[in-house]
Fold this sequence. Notes:
Helices cover 17% and strands 28% of the residues. It is of the alpha+beta class. A 4-stranded antiparallel β-sheet has the order 1-39-38-37, with no helix packed on it. Strands 2-3-4-5 form a 4-stranded antiparallel β-sheet. The longest helix has 29 residues, at 18-46. α9 (637-650) packs across α13 and α12 (679-685) crosses α13 (702-720). β35 and β36 form a beta hairpin. The radius of gyration is 29 Å and the shape is globular.
Amino acid sequence: xxxxxxxxxxxxxxxxxxxxxxxxxxxxxxxxxxxxxxxxxxxxxxxxxxxxxxxxxxxxxxxxxxxxxxxxxxxxxxxxxxxxxxxxxxxxxxxxxxxxxxxxxxxxxxxxxxxxxxxxxxxxxxxxxxxxxxxxxxxxxxxxxxxxxxxxxxxxxxxxxxxxxxxxxxxxxxxxxxxxxxxxxxxxxxxxxxxxxxxxxxxxxxxxxxxxxxxxxxxxxxxxxxxxxxxxxxxxxxxxxxxxxxxxxxxxxxxxxxxxxxxxxxxxxxxxxxxxxxxxxxxxxxxxxxxxxxxxxxxxxxxxxxxxxxxxxxxxxxxxxxxxxxxxxxxxxxxxxxxxxxxxxxxxxxxxxxxxxxxxxxxxxxxxxxxxxxxxxxxxxxxxxxxxxxxxxxxxxxxxxxxxxxxxxxxxxxxxxxxxxxxxxxxxxxxxxxxxxxxxxxxxxxxxxxxxxxxxxxxxxxxxxxxxxxxxxxxxxxxxxxxxxxxxxxxxxxxxxxxxxxxxxxxxxxxxxxxxxxxxxxxxxxxxxxxxxxxxxxxxxxxxxxxxxxxxxxxxxxxxxxxxxxxxxxxxxxxxxxxxxxxxxxxxxxxxxxxxxxxxxxxxxxxxxxxxxxxxxxxxxxxxxxxxxxxxxxxxxxxxxxxxxxxxxxxxxxxxxxxxxxxxxxxxxxxxxxxxxxxxxxxxxxxxxxxxxxxxxxxxxxxxxxxxxxxxxxxxxxxxxxxxxxxxxxxxxx
Length: 734
């Protein structure tokens, strides 16, 4: 072919006969095409693609998830390869098959019952139709999306005692995927690498001291060939840190502590030495806190890992660090060098945190125009109620504005970067109603950023708590003891906020450029799900048991589907064999979901998957039977009062109050008689320990356990008989 054209170009008139050359050209092309076709047939026969969903297929597609694939996740939007879909964690899917113009035809494609009623908070991962997701007790599931069937399950066998050590339910927020391995952080503090094909453990490493109150609920991330994992436990008394391990071997690469330890032991690095200057007293005796339990993002160009740091131990700074101080790096965003874990910069959202205002909420990286100039930014809506935009190259504060009602501070000073606190915000002399409360204006439920609308969609709430200085408080070194050092001072006045809004949940569309709310969709509950954004739609589940799609520009509700049970997890979108899917996992739970519920059902965790033109029937699960226990009580009111005090101290955090609880954990006032027949064995001997029900036998004697039992039965009888207001015990309790 080359010689043919060369000859023609050299002698275009020498014996040139066009038809002859055209015939030669056609002949050559036919011969070459036949040759290539023959080679293609041979290659196809030798390298036939494996059947989708087969062992060979799963091995091929999961091993192909390497660092390059993860960096370039936006080039393969048909997959959802990491927790936030990409390293920017924007939770925006550019797939356009599903839009607000055709969403009326979105229907149920399949469901899969995962068989447990504990809370599901995880975001699934999907690569070429193979889904990986974690659930309660850190169990991991592999699912064939094409069939809607389970491939394998991995159970790390977390001991039941961790149901009590975990502050906020036995949940897990997700897994990571890299070169054929699936990674999960377990509730008891291990990092496990699982073979993505077989579901068998490849390696595991213990990341914490199990004699302390550490747990893990957050999703690991893989950045630059390293698995990053943090931990939880600041409510009990630990020192927070984040660790990087070699993704293939599990060998530790580096560790960054988020708060300083005992100065007498020396400091791990210069960052810890500087941090210690901002603490007073003997903070190290209670650990200091600062656990990095959820938020991570990564900039591969800057090679910076952004970590959200949590609250202090104790919550109350007056007792944690008596002479004040900023208490670095509590409630901060720290930027770490991915090679060695060194601190490059930090920004503290809440200096001297006094309210459990963690900065562990979702971090999003984006490029937006600020004052008509493109900026590489980091965005976060932490618990404290202000929406932050930072320059992610150096941590410079660009803006910080309240996205919910906030009364602990009036504004953030852009010159100093510090909040301007109100005179009662630290509740030193009063008991004060503070907005937001410890549930935060925004909690762990992920938000999303849409680069088309330039809006951030925040699962938010207006919710307060009355903070006060406790009387005669002492730190208890016990891995099961909730050490937050809050309470009311009976000798002080209680300052209620006369301007307080109704307490509610909502989905907020926030403009980070104009620094204002664009629209808001209200919810009945303050505890709802994370979000997903498509180009013109936003999907969110809620406590009432619905997956809802909103118009991304104005918040108009476009579609909803009843999944029966409350939802806290985030939906995702992906494409398999040319079909775009939306997947959501229902399963009520989490910190508020343990003891409140907004539906009559408590369905098992169920994967719901939707596509256009589908119309499968939704599963039907039985309604919860709610009949008050009807047993005789012969105990005196003094003993019933004692039972109430013990119940409120040890039981109400999970079960709520009798007749007014029952979220993911049962309302005991509705229990079967058989439960009360073995009440002492359950409470005092650990009969239900494997289910997460603690064994209180080393803390409660038989008379106290009996008093708790009689208190529950008494409260149930009062409610059953409709006696309202004439029973002092019930009135105080409700």
